UniProtKB/TrEMBL annotation:
Residues the UniProt record annotates as site (Positions MEP for the nucleophilic attack): R146, K200
Name of the featured protein: 2-C-methyl-D-erythritol 4-phosphate cytidylyltransferase
GO biological process entries: isopentenyl diphosphate biosynthetic process, methylerythritol 4-phosphate pathway
Catalytic reaction equation(s): 2-C-methyl-D-erythritol 4-phosphate + CTP + H(+) = 4-CDP-2-C-methyl-D-erythritol + diphosphate
HAMAP family: IspD
Site (Transition state stabilizer): R15, K22
Family: Belongs to the IspD/TarI cytidylyltransferase family. IspD subfamily.
Pathway connected to this protein: Isoprenoid biosynthesis; isopentenyl diphosphate biosynthesis via DXP pathway; isopentenyl diphosphate from 1-deoxy-D-xylulose 5-phosphate: step 2/6
Known EC number: 2.7.7.60
GO molecular function: 2-C-methyl-D-erythritol 4-phosphate cytidylyltransferase activity
Organism: Roseivivax isoporae LMG 25204
Gene name of the encoded protein: ispD
Length: 226
């Protein structure tokens, strides 16, 4: 089963602050994008970026089996651009991953791939364990049952032909992720265990959290710049 990665990196990441989008900032000696791409080393990858970021992208992908393509105005449009770019030599399966998750454990990636042996799609998630509130104007207004709720992560893996057809059938979608598009197309998506280490860099404090994980995992190598 030939599997390829599609890394979504076309966003601006304004909540993270900084002079450049978060995926091009350096964490533990490498750019966020480089760390993310290296997790998928050994399989072909497509990196989808903002048209203004081509130079950043080529630098991050140097020496790796990575194709760089321009994304669209929304996440769904960027994913479709990446999927369409793979059509000339399509893989059997594709793993769609947010570039801002550079600490993805290999075990989570492998679990997603394994689940694709018996499901249309698979994605990692963590069960919600905290109490859930609703609120307004700074006050708690109610509670919600957390049973059956999960915190979604990536990579979200699919049979390539099926997810490409799903995206083509939902052009213009503002879906939060590819599982939403897949389920709208009738695909069954399995849940595999996620990881607390698989954090998504969103705010300024997340860079330090990611650096700590990467330095612990890779030691001195993490402090060497590419």
């Amino acid at each position: 089963m030939r599997t390829a990665a599609l890394i979504v990196a076309a966003g601006r990441g304004t909540r993270a602050g900084g002079a450049v989008p978060k995926q091009w900032r350096v964490v533990a000696g490498r750019t966020v994008a480089r760390w993310t791409l290296e997790v998928f080393e050994g399989m072909p990858a497509t990196l989808v970026v903002h048209p203004d970021d081509m130079d950043f992208a080529r630098a991050a992908a140097e020496g790796l089996d990575v194709s760089v393509v321009a994304g669209g105005a929304t996440r769904a449009a960027s994913v479709r651009a990446g999927l369409e770019a793979m059509a000339a030599t399509p893989p059997d399966c594709v793993l769609i991953h947010d570039v801002a998750r550079p600490c993805l454990p290999r075990a989570v990636l492998d679990a997603v791939v394994a689940a694709l042996g018996h499901a249309d799609g698979a994605a990692p998630a963590l069960a919600v364990t905290d109490a859930l509130w609703t609120g307004a104007d700074g006050f708690v207004t109610g509670t919600r049952d957390r049973a059956g709720l999960f915190r979604a992560q990536t990579p979200q893996g699919f049979r390539y032909d099926a997810i490409l057809a799903a995206h083509r059938g939902h052009a213009g979608s503002d879906a939060a992720d590819d599982v939403e598009i897949a389920r709208a197309a009738g695909l069954a998506v399995a849940i595999v265990p996620g990881s607390e280490q698989n954090l998504k860099i969103t705010g300024p404090g997340d860079f330090d959290r990611a650096a700590a994980i990467l330095e612990e995992r890779h030691g001195r190598k993490a402090r060497e710049r590419i």
